[in-house]
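Re: [help] complex structure
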Amino acid sequence: MSHPDVKYFPHLRKQLFEIVFGTETRAGKLFDIILLWAIVLSVLSVMLESVKEIRESYDSIFFVSEWFFTILFTIEYLLRLFITAEPKKYAFSFFGIIDLLATLPTYLTLFVAGGSYLVVIRSIRLLRIFRILKLGRYLREASVLSNALAASRHKILVFLGAVFTLAMIMGTLMYMIEGGESGFTSIPRSIYWAIVTITTVGYGDIAPQTVFGQAVASMLMLMGYAIIAVPTGIVTTEIAHAEKQQKKSESAARKCVACGKTGHDKDAIFCKNCSAKL
Amino acid sequence: MSHPDVKYFPHLRKQLFEIVFGTETRAGKLFDIILLWAIVLSVLSVMLESVKEIRESYDSIFFVSEWFFTILFTIEYLLRLFITAEPKKYAFSFFGIIDLLATLPTYLTLFVAGGSYLVVIRSIRLLRIFRILKLGRYLREASVLSNALAASRHKILVFLGAVFTLAMIMGTLMYMIEGGESGFTSIPRSIYWAIVTITTVGYGDIAPQTVFGQAVASMLMLMGYAIIAVPTGIVTTEIAHAEKQQKKSESAARKCVACGKTGHDKDAIFCKNCSAKL
Amino acid sequence: MSHPDVKYFPHLRKQLFEIVFGTETRAGKLFDIILLWAIVLSVLSVMLESVKEIRESYDSIFFVSEWFFTILFTIEYLLRLFITAEPKKYAFSFFGIIDLLATLPTYLTLFVAGGSYLVVIRSIRLLRIFRILKLGRYLREASVLSNALAASRHKILVFLGAVFTLAMIMGTLMYMIEGGESGFTSIPRSIYWAIVTITTVGYGDIAPQTVFGQAVASMLMLMGYAIIAVPTGIVTTEIAHAEKQQKKSESAARKCVACGKTGHDKDAIFCKNCSAKL
Amino acid sequence: MSHPDVKYFPHLRKQLFEIVFGTETRAGKLFDIILLWAIVLSVLSVMLESVKEIRESYDSIFFVSEWFFTILFTIEYLLRLFITAEPKKYAFSFFGIIDLLATLPTYLTLFVAGGSYLVVIRSIRLLRIFRILKLGRYLREASVLSNALAASRHKILVFLGAVFTLAMIMGTLMYMIEGGESGFTSIPRSIYWAIVTITTVGYGDIAPQTVFGQAVASMLMLMGYAIIAVPTGIVTTEIAHAEKQQKKSESAARKCVACGKTGHDKDAIFCKNCSAKL
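Output below.
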């Protein structure tokens, strides 16, 4: 199937576009809801297949459902490529790449065993749900959050670099103190323990047994306890900032058509400068 | 018992209303305190009954106490329905539904075994304590908190959705890496492990054993450690905002009767505009 | 020994007061440093005594040191009562009560076995260190922190009440789901598990084994993960507020003696109103 | 080798200086990148050596690589001392001391066994990466973070002191309650448990078994859960403050050469006072 040009079947493609990409029409909404359920079912089926008892009883069902959904999603992907005016742009967009990746794992199983678990990548497609629900509110919040995270990414990287260096030094120290006993069998393993401790996860699969080791571990815990305040402080400051920027740009976006004045309150009905209706 | 109309026994019902619903009179206060103790005792009795050694020794006492409290709460519920002027409004209010649910579990045990544990729902009734203590301060704080949580619920949902998607992908990845060993026996179980790790709970019932698995787990922990900053940042920003709004509306509520000026400080005694006493 | 009146030995008592209570003179500083070391040694000695191997070897040393420090602290306490002008005020002050409690446990061992561990209460006396170091800066910080905590105590109580109710309901639910297996042997134990999980401590001594139990546990963890944001948000807002108040009151405290103007910057040398030196 | 004076070989030393210390020239960049890889390889080699299976197979390779890197870093250190104009200043600078410490551990192994693990200190040298990448942005962020941490260090110390006192008292209490059972074998060990619990790490190697012990532990967890809010609140407030200061000093640094006006926005191109280009 060749990449289609907008010259061919313009009417049919426009109609299909409204159904497949649009969410305004009834058919478009229905298409998206069916798609979401197909994604949920296909991901669920892969998860259940990994449970030994279930796999043994319903082996053939899983085989059929996997190929059924894969072929369905392949057809959907090709359809999207066909009906969009700019197939290249779609193919290299975030959702375009995810849509493609969602179909590949099952084909991969023809050559490599175990590849089928990669279909879990389909779950990322569920993010479309926000588009269907037309929850502009959610998109606004997601944009505030991602702006805040983007603005603080340099600080977070500096912070994670410092934490990792600390974990490396403390892990080696503990390897020397515990002398290869009680789980500290190598430096990489001790570094793993240090990360488990600093982040306050604390599995307990490796835990110091000597008095001196427990004293050093206690110190590391208290450091981790105080250090966790740093990313929190960074992100809080940035969220407060992003929140303020968002409000500013929202109020700047409201412009009086009569006098050109901007900066009206979110709930303002009349222009505060010339009393014209907004 | 039919739903009574306010025409019947208006005097008796008014008196009872002051005792059962009111907290101003001495009798009303006493009624509420006895009620709270009855709730505490009935919940405690169910908890102790679940301890095997205690249940075996005092089996009949628990049976009696359970039915005693259930009948007591049933009478109380019917009484409340009888004396209130708008029984329907009460029956469908938050506390009305909780009051009903608090009586049902024991009756349920007549048909289904094990239902008796549901009486723990009675503990929600203890929230009445804030009303009895007349701690307006607590109600104010609770309202600041719930406003902040309500305002940030969209952001929190977006955040939890992203965390769950991350847990699904990382859980599947770990299932593939650890190959069904050391507790990672299925994808749902591995997702459970990923959530235990991201939230820094870290039971340790499932923990990676391979070097590569521990490296991926370390990465996930550091992500969880940085990610926890996000809900904190969201809620902090909202609490600061809700706090400000509360103060604003409180000062707006103080209005000078002489000149109509609002916005007086919380501790102001005289109107700042016309010096009249507030 | 009767409570002395300031009429007796005024000179001796004044000199002793400067040594025991004061930290300005050289003797006063020395007294406090010796006292701190005695406290550290006595607490350390009790801790080491609890280690079985050490106790068996040095039993008599611990016995002697315990009585030595106890008699020392008793003499010190009586001395403080004797030299202060208002013995009653001291006896009922925070440090007065701690000083008394620090001497009692060893006497208690004459009547009750095991009471000796209570001497750990002596460690609270180490807080005197801030007074000796004359670190006004630390006291200022401690006051900001305790103001912030005091201001947020109502919100924190409401929050802890809500968390405990959640733990009670979820614990009972898990007891019903896991059916007394894998550690969930009674409702109180299941509530203990719920608290361990919500607070993200996660010992792992009790952990759900059924699929449904793990699903509910995952939900509880995500809730705990989001809920932890609440106390953080509360305290952050209050610390920012307390910080602002502190600065305000500090700048208000700086008053120009020439013109009476207040509100000068912390580093201002001249009055900003009349240029007089501050 | 004597400390050289700038009089000898001024030309050669200037050229070498640009390569070894500088990052502007191509040769300088290449030198730094090779150095970083050498550091990474030497640290990795020590880590892998600690894994028993790998050490047994490649013993001689590790021996050679360790001495190779040590001699390389020793030559580099002496070179730096030789070419810098102020060798003393370099020798006592932060990186000068780290550079020296990075070479010593291997020489130490000639006298003391096990000292080789100390080469992990070399990983601190990796911080040079920020200088090579010329990421001024990262340095700015690091300075905001370290300013915030420095400003809050008094509050953090007061906080850690309070947490440690709490851990000491609660640890002793639990030792008395659990009576030396289920891991609480001594007071120091119980204090270790208390720190593990307050910081929400929760290994689970020590966990209360008695009902009363679990109740006290639950209380301690809830306290730790609420207490963690304190360092977070402190650091958040300080980061917000440091962020503001940084912006202020950055905008103050932008001064119009025409009229001397400062305080221009970060993205301003013209002076807001006299319209001259900045």
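Residues 10-138 of chain B form a domain with the Four Helix Bundle (Hemerythrin (Met), subunit A) fold (CATH 1.20.120.350).
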